[in-house]
Amino acid sequence: MTRLQFESREEFLERLRALVEGGTPPHALTVQMPYEVPEVAILLREPPDRLRFFALFGAIGGFGGGLALTLYSVIGWPIVVGGKPIVSWPPFLLIGYLLTILLGSLGAFAGFLLMARLPSPSGLSEGGAFPDRFVIVVNEEAGE
Amino acid sequence: MAEPRAGQGLEADVLSALRRPGWRYFAGLGLTALLALMLFALWGRMIWLGVGLTGKNNPVGWAMLITNFVFWVGIAHSGTLISAVLFLFRAKFRTSFNRSAEAMTVIALVVASLFPLIHLGRVWVFYFLLPYPSERLLWPNFRSPLPWDVFAINTYLIVSLVFFYVGMIPDLAIVRRHLPGLRGRIYGVLSLGWQGTSEQWRHYARLYLILAAFATPLVASVHSIVSWDFAVSIVPGWHTTIFAPYFVAGAILSGTAMVLTLTIPMRRWLGLERYVLVDHFEGIAKILLFTSLIVTYSYVVEHGLALYGHNPFEHDQYLYRAVGDYRALFAIMLVCNSLLPLTLFVRRWRRSLPWLFTLGILVNVGMWVERFVIIVASLSHDYDPYAWGTYTFSLTEAGITVGSFGLFFLLFLLFSRLLPVLSMTEVKQGLAEHREPPR
Hints:
The complex is a heterodimer of chains A (144) and B (439). Chain A has 144 residues and is mostly helical. Chain A has helices at 9-21, 38-43, 51-76, 89-115, 121-124, 140-143, and strands spanning 2-6, 29-32, 134-138. Chain A has a 3-stranded antiparallel sheet with strand order 1-3-2, covered by helices on one side. In chain A, helix 3 runs antiparallel to helix 4 (89-115). The two termini of chain A are 12 Å apart. Chain B is mainly α and 439 residues long. Chain B has one domain (7-122, 216-431). Chain B has helices at 7-15, 23-49, 64-88, 98-120, 145-178, 181-190, 198-231, 243-269, 278-308, 312-323, 327-339, 347-350, 353-380, 395-418, 424-435. In chain B, helix 3 (64-88) packs antiparallel against helix 7, helix 4 (98-120) packs across helix 5 (145-178) and helix 9 packs across helix 10 (312-323). Chains A and B meet through strand 2, helix 2, helix 3, helix 4 and helix 5 of A and helix 1, helix 5, helix 7 and helix 15 of B.
């Protein structure tokens, strides 16, 4: 297990590129960064992010749930208020829209926790702190 | 001006705010805590003795408390604009303000959400507004705008809270690294054990983008829904289609003004001059000027519709606002919201922090008064001259209003000393990209 540390973003990227081009498989590399560097995902050939599906399912569920709630409530007790139709689409769509955003956001957040494996017990341990520099850990055993 | 420091220097600068503060901070905390206490004491008294303690009566049944609700929801808007909309537009100056603005959003929504409850009188039955399966098979009337408000404000509060928290996760992990003992462990738990691996950053960046995309339509929709509380009624002065964009522009104007009011002193007290630049304040000043022009245009359109719309009640209501019992407030509204922001066309004024701070306060005075005029003047003078009447606020309402400012500033003071006020990882990223040699 080799641990390399870099202050500079450029040096870090150069070294990571050299390691990947030198034949080190991406799964043998663990990278920690003090801020996001988008090039790393390309270098490590990370798969496309699936977080959007969590957001999409949350949003669809929210929209459907909002419509179902409003329709159920008026069909369950059909009383005319203020001369408005029993099924009043504009306000019902409004509730659907708000729940789309609410559950879409919460779905994305839940997906993030799941996929980023948070809360992380190893991150909470003494040695697992978030570093203030770029770190590359090469796991030679995994590379063989 | 000193150059911004990267890496450890930046962390030390931002986290110096978390060290033990001086007596001035505690004095501010004590004063605002007293004001907040006054709010809750007066509210308790009102619960005990009844809503007769307010000046509300026929015909003005919505008055100062609802004015405060609309005002505080409006204040919340700029936070989402700065964090989400400017993120999507890749405006670089947002990193100086986004954390404070997001905190302001959450705090303003907490304060705002108290007011419908206070106004309600019988606060213990507030849950009637929530959709829950009751034994009487009763549901909220979703065709009324009041349940729309419940959904809109709660959605906005929850999404803003998630956005605020997610943006802070890496920074909480940095705080954990700097603070020893129990405090460090608490921040570690709050950071969820964030380690900054490439996989975590990849999901984080995607989540931030998704949340920004979800929060952006809320900037337009939440205050539109609040405006429909008024616009779907038939009260002259309220029943107009321009209300939604008019309210949204006003909300962004007041929120931007509050960002200036909060961040100008905060930058000085926390020594953040090298990160929050005058150029950044100029960017915020341009947003304020732009939204002030939209608000002024809305005033012209609203009053033009009333004067030329062949509706005698609307026409009369407009004249009543301009020259009736509330004419002084109408004049204050025009001066503060439309005339004074015009000074920002001059670059020297846009870059003068004392003026921006003063203007921020004056615009918020104007925006509070605008909501008061819209709500109270319209109800005072509707269709039937027999039912006309004016409103005078009571000391209870005035005390609750002052107390709400106390609560807002108390929570913001606590935020400024308990959580990092700048997004350190974003500032680091911005500095690295800025300094990166061209390839």
